[in-house]
Batch of 3 targets.
Target 1
Amino acid sequence: MCAAVAADGQPGIAVTDHGSLAASWKLQRAAENAGILPVFGVELYLAIEDGLKNARLRRATESKHQLPGDTGGDPAHKANEDSKGSTRYHHLTVLAETEAGWRNLLKVQNAAHDGDAFWSKPRADLTLLSEHAEGLIVLTGCLSGPIKSRLVAGDVDGADRALGELCDIVGRDQVYVEVMSHGIAEEDAVLPELVRLGKRHGLPFVATNDSHFTRPEDATIHEAWLCNGSPGTTLSTPGRWKFHGDGYWLKSAAEMRAMWDASPGTEEAVDNTLRVWERCTAERVIPEPHLRLPVFDPDGDAVSLLREKVREGAIARYGDPIPEQVRRRLNDEFKTIKAKGFADYFLIVADMIEWSRSQGYRVGPGRGSAAGSCVSYCLGIVSVDPIRFGLLFERFLAPDRVGMPDIDTDFENGARSKVIDYLVSRWGRDRVARIGTFGVSAAAGSLRAAGRVLDKATIGAKLAETVPMLGGGHTASIAELVDPKFAPGEPFR
């Protein structure tokens, strides 16, 4: 998408995934490679307001404004109803204008995932927005937004109040009335009243487009992808769920201007996309990457403490005096760890594992490249001797490596939540985060999935079998250590 935008001469692109900021990091890299500047945002799931604060903490609904023949223009609409068919949430597009706005987006999203706020989806509310409004730009959203959904239902007064509330919360200068067209009759039907509301509140209009794929010809592939997410559904399934309307590709500037430049009241809507982009790229929104680790001992020196713990562990593992080969290995590793500023990291991980064992919880011996660290072995983080088995420290942590080392630790199933509770009590609830990974449809799996949705499952499976299996692996050996001259100041003698 970034490459297509750059080829069209556009200076940037915004990504506003539903209820997630996770794509922002990949967007930043892709945009840099394409020579454009990205805008970071999210399409919030906004809890249905009932006049009280913290609406996200209650399970309120309102009558659903059903689009004819479908549940809306994107997958997020599919689950947006309870058993009675009422709407559980609205959609609201929010962009980070500044670094403060980016931090506030993170806070809003974290709160939306927390406790009772998560109901079907991670829900935010107007209370959250008011508490974290600095640096945010709000667009009024799609047909499932708090403004258009009420216009579809004929509730003009309710739409007017909702628009006024947004202006009060984030400031009138931070709100844009969002117009879009995907071949859905309701979008065209509410447009005149939407324009009147925007003008009544003195707000600018901005033209956006839901882009779920890059080129018009990708529409069929996208339909196949939706089928793949619905078990038992193929492209030939009667009445299968699909997008309502069309126009969900990444439109060119010319295509957007053809839709909006001559539309009454929205003549500046496309120009305003550039103005929003300029506002959101005037300063770096996502800060430069930096280490975000707690200080293990605020009253002590992490490097000295780590050195002492490693020395004690080395004596326990290898005996006293520490063998020369071990001493050299520890000195080399420690030099890199100290230079990279990871002393606190090793102490934090070692503390977690030490506590777990003290509680009688079973801890794995260590997996992956971390087993190549003699420091980790002496701290009890791993139980595999890297010197005995010829494992390379450089596969785990090298001086020129960017980013933190990765220590994979296994706990018995029943202990996992207890370990997390300990980390929360040790470092603070707002200092512990869970991470996730994205599933990727690789070659063989993609062939099988394509076969299923095309009603050719047997052919797909046979084609998948032709994909070469990756891996097989190889064993790396470590050269004989050369005895260097003893350097003054080396910690392990």
Target 2
Amino acid sequence: MSQSRSRAADGHMLLLVVMYAAAFVAAFNENIVNVALIDIMGDLSVGATTAQWLITGYMVLASVITASMGYLSRRLSTRCLFFVAVASILVDEVLCMVAPTFEVLLVCRIIQAVGSGMLFPLMMNVVLAVAPRERMGFFLAIGGACITLGPAFGPVVSGLAATLFGWRAIFVVPAVAMAVLGGIGLKAVRNVSETSAAVLDVPSLVELAVGLTCFVYGLTELSTSVLLACGLLVAAAVVLALFVRRQGRIAEPLLDLRPMRNPRFWPACLLVVVAMMETFSMSVLLPLYFEGACGTSALVAGLLVLPAILGNAVTAVVGGRIMDGRGEWPLLPLGFALVLVGQLLVCAASPSMDMVLVMALTILVYAGVGLVFSPSQTAGLRTLPADEYPHGTALINTFVMVAASVGSSLFVGILSGAADAAAAGGATAAAAQASGFSVAVLVAAAIAAAGLALSFWYARAMRGESGTRVHG
């Protein structure tokens, strides 16, 4: 009996390692195009607005697939979902390498998002199914660290590949990694949940796709065409409201919103959104600051962000262990306080254009995010019954994808607007970029302050419930 349990535990561990690695590669794949946009624009003769769809289109479809994972998890087995995701990324990486036109590249790049949209919630569903409940925070934290580390290494590795071999080489690393994981997965990946004859509600899928497209595209237009952006955002609000209304009226919703009725779940979702926005604020703004204000290359800018990302991975694991041992209090307020203090210090230091100082202070921000991102997910998910885990993970990962889109569009728009205003006032190009960065980080600090207030209330409330249950 003990040998059987040991073999089962080894099988669970190998399954988790494969899922963690797949989530890392999927997250890595999200950001590989960013540093090669200039080269792609020149080689395929497209403008910046058109080329941007390689990123925007990817994020939209990934968000739609993520939101559909509640349905997909009911309809398809774990193995089927894993191999569909791996195949969609692997095949389209190869096609991207040889794409003769921008249109072909765009289609192949967007289809890759199917795999990314599946792998993040699939990894979390597997963790929830096989990890010991008393160590859920630790195992989810490892998954969160993988998703955080992926986008950090993406620009560095792809920037090096593009510099040495050209932009088509950026697709080689994720292609090879997915081929290896697919081979290992033949033995390691097994089914961990039951399937059913779930029915896909096509109108819901259309409403979600249209609503998210309008929302993300509207955000990207805020800094160039305010009128168009407002129209798109209004349209997005209307369509997404219709989507939410429909989910409550049909027997098999595409995105089951029942977990949002849980008063212990939805505040955790808001904390996850704030944490993701803080991550993307720094991940997007810092390279722009290092390149625009300090004059570094894209590769050096990516390397300067790495220490903070590595610090985030360490505190994520520490935060997961604390979450398992002590719960939400005082972990969540402490983490958000660290984010807030770090961003205020970065805001104050950025006009000096001291790269080392800004990099060191950024470590505080990322360390704070590491303490709150996965623990916030754990806090919400462990309040759900087991049959709602797929819906909870689909909701949280959808919020994460939307927050990533909001964070990047919002903060880049703020930086650009503030930098233009500073330049118009007579500042040099470098000083204007530093000023814009400072303003954008200050806005991010305000959002962190809201997260701190919410986390203080939520952690105290959850601590009180825990105490009540213990005494009861």
Target 3
Amino acid sequence: MPEHRPPAGLFGPGPGGEQVTVYADAFADASYEGDLMALAGCAYRTGRESQLEHGEPSAGRVFVRPVADPPTPEAARAGELHDRLRLRPFPGYAEVLDAPGTGDGDHRVQGYNLRMMITDDPGNQLPVRRPVDYDRDRIAALEHPGLMENLMPNRKMRVNRPQLVGEHIGYAEGSWAERQRIIDAHWRALQGCLHFLRTDPAVAGETRRRWQAWGLAADEFADNGNRPYEIYARETRRLDGRYRFTAHDAMLAPGLERAPVHSTAVAATEWYIDSHACSFERYGDSRHEGKVILHMETFPGMVPYEALLPRELDNLLVVNCVSSTHVGWNTIRLEPTWMNIGEAAGWALALARDAGVAPADVDRQHLVRTLARTGVMVSFCNDVDVASREAWVAAVQYFGTRGFFAGYDVRPDDPLGRRTAEVWLQAAARVGSPDYEPMRTVHAVHDLAADTDEPIDRAALETLLARSPLAGKPGARVLRAPERVTRADFCRLLFALTAPTRAAG
């Protein structure tokens, strides 16, 4: 897939005619569109990679149909594991069909729409009018919002359709005028869709009657003609950075019951790979082309700090349009992960300033430890509430990025096993090394699962500590720990023992 840089003259004064010059030691591009990274000359991608580039099963041009049963034994295994995780449950699997051109890369991205608020409160309602250029047949062919879906407080409902698939393609690299044209087209389509649902004879009478009770909320976006300030641009540019997050980062690693671990993780993903349609084509009984919903195939992944870093600049962090493939992007692009990435970027900028270095040169271990201590989810744990202020929670978050857990269950209250203690001690002695490989630790811990790992008592653990490279560290004795040492107890101790001197844990 070709890399892109902004065409000459693409960026000029903003939509209001203003032009602003900003000077700073470091910047963060938190826009939907990645305009700052493009303006700065950073390499980026748009469109879809081919299936061959990274071996992603649903990359490129793709037709998928939902199926109730797992299409392969691997899918069945993944589905059973997925059902045990505390994630939003969805039924079914996805089957990729062997259609002409399957897997080919192209320039397309998934559909956009305006996320409008409507209400059934007559005292807070604006009328739904028939658009001047209303094209009934075109509107009828679109995917419509469901009645009583996405209900909100105060008698409101969030409308997340329709999508003008295809007409949005020029938005990411478009001029301000081109972007406004695309936004206007989506606004008219939204109004047309609401008019259609309220009035068209093709809509069941009872459904029409119920839609007639709903209108635009007068108190939403009141200073913008009651329409959202921005279009929901689900996918625009994607940074071509120092690490590219792919679908494999959110799927089971070979032989394991978890996705790959990254020692520089600054955020966790937990939404399934979810691409909306990229074209209105269908193949047999497939969904629209490009619509990929991998409910059972996606697992919580880790976003490395390097996915925020352009290769060309050391003082720019890309917060939203992070470095990823089209498929990988679809588990990152939800707000919970974006919020974690945004908070991580803020901490990275602050730590860089304090250390007198560029954001690209921030001490990665110090950054990840700081995020863990401040409650940012850097590692998904199935049985841990990251919001808890228990001291051991930060420790297991940090060591999750170091590969201490073979799966997503930490089992914090379980007794610490002797062999687990040995593996963790060996790993803890190396976690600060720049060549530390967390996946080696994951596999070492995983190999323990097939063997008996008898609990270790305090005295035996103190003996192990005395023989380890951490023996000279202050506090390298369990001492206050009870006779029954839990996994959480030991993680907390190791977190303190591995704290860098300048960032005491």
